[in-house]
Write a structure and sequence with these properties.
This protein is mostly helical. The radius of gyration is 23 Å and the shape is elongated.
């Protein structure tokens, strides 16, 4: 499972790197990227042929198929081979410690991937990569042609999958309250997405005010003195 987490971390880092590129979340974006070293079977993780990292939902699906399934098998094997019917707290403690550490790392990866995806989506939707580039800024400027897609469906699809898949472990590890972990992660994702969207709009407002101020100042200086 440690190997799975290491690969997932490399994939998540590649996703974050691409997300930082201007307009990276725009439809049809197909820039060439390099598959991170150490990632085996990149196509299984959702990498495109040109090295473009997977989408957020595809990443979650690939990660859960590997990690959650492996965790389920591990818990079943430990219960069947080592516990042999003894489910006392003392006997289960090593299993719970291991599971808590693995799930903790899992949610760190999810939060990182969701955060970078949300930032990229709202930046593209708010045309942050075009802000300040209009020669004649006005209400019809291309930089004000905001997208209808701010990444909400993408983020919520990913978190819905996380909640469903984590729920598969709940009956095997009830002591960890994994559904509460998923609920907290979903709330954090929603709050982070809203904060990113508000921040992007604030940045656009500030940029617009600066450009209008500059235009007014320039026009005022061109006027002949009375």
């Amino acid at each position: 499972m440690t190997r799975i987490l290491q690969e997932a971390a490399a994939v998540s880092a590649a996703m974050a790197a691409v997300a930082q590129q201007p307009g990276s979340a725009a439809a049809g974006s197909s820039s060439t990227a390099a598959v991170p070293a150490g990632v085996e079977s990149p196509e299984a993780w959702g990498f495109a042929a040109n090295g473009t990292p997977p989408s957020l939902p595809r990443f979650v699906k690939a990660l859960d198929e590997r990690l959650i399934n492996t965790m389920q098998e591990t818990v079943m094997n430990v219960n069947g081979i080592f516990m042999q019917g003894d489910q006392s707290a003392a006997r289960r403690k090593p299993l719970l410690v291991m599971a808590k550490d693995i799930i903790g790392e899992y949610f760190k990866l999810i939060r990182r991937a969701v955060g970078s995806c949300a930032m990229s989506c709202v930046a593209t939707a708010a045309c942050l990569h075009l802000a300040g580039g209009d020669k004649d800024f006005s209400a019809t400027s291309p930089s004000l042609d905001f997208s209808d897609n701010w990444g909400t469906d993408t983020v919520m699809a990913a978190m819905s999958a996380v909640t469903t898949d984590i729920g598969l472990l709940h009956s095997q590890l009830p002591e960890l309250s994994l559904r509460d972990w998923a609920a907290a992660a979903t709330e954090q994702a929603v709050r982070g997405h809203i904060a990113a969207a508000v921040g992007a709009l604030q940045e656009r407002i500030s940029s617009g005010v600066r450009m209008l101020t500059s235009q007014l100042t320039s026009r005022g200086g061109d006027q002949a003195p009375v």
